[in-house]
Amino acid sequence: DIICVINLQHNCVDSQCTDTLQQPARQERLETSHMKPIIRHKSTPHYFINAHSIHNYDHIHLVIPETL
């Protein structure tokens, strides 16, 4: 059963994720000359919890390890 829903965001700064590639940006299905970075995310236990999830704190607290 689902008890609550939370939104977690990957922490690229502490995980040291890097932009490794560039790819053309698309606008209305057409490639433009503007390039955008492609991020290579690293596997990590570092996440941000969305502040709108705080109303579910009692449920969230039960699943977060005490070491955090």
What is the fold's blueprint, element by element?
Blueprint: E1 8-10, H1 12-15, E2 18-27, E3 30-40, E4 47-49, H2 57-63
Antiparallel strand pairs: 1-4, 2-3
Please summarize what this structure is.
The chain is α+β, with helices and mostly antiparallel strands and 68 residues long. The chain is built from two helices and four strands; from the N terminus they run βαβββα. The model has no long low-confidence stretch (mean pLDDT 82).
Total beta strands: 4
What is the N-to-C order of secondary-structure elements (H for helix, E for strand)?
EHEEEH
Ends apart, CA distance between termini:
25 Å
Alpha-beta content class: alpha+beta
| Unreliable residue runs | none
SS field, number of helical segments: 2
What value does the average pLDDT take?
A: 82
Task: Please state roughly what percent of the residues sit in beta strands, choosing from under 5%, 5-15%, 15-25%, 25-35%, 35-45% or over 45%.
Answer: 35-45%
Oligomeric status = single chain
The level of helicity is 10-25%
Largest β-sheet summary: 2 strands, antiparallel
Global outline: elongated
From the alpha carbons, calculate the radius of gyration and give it in angstroms. 18 Å
Q: How are strands sequenced across the largest beta sheet?
A: 1-4
Task: Tell me about this structure.
This protein has 68 residues and is α+β, with helices and mostly antiparallel strands. The protein has helices at 12-15, 57-63; strands at residues 8-10, 18-27, 30-40, 47-49. It has a two-stranded antiparallel sheet with strand order 1-4. A two-stranded antiparallel sheet has the order 2-3. The protein starts with 7 loop residues before the first strand and ends in a 5-residue tail after the last helix. The model has no long low-confidence stretch (mean pLDDT 82).
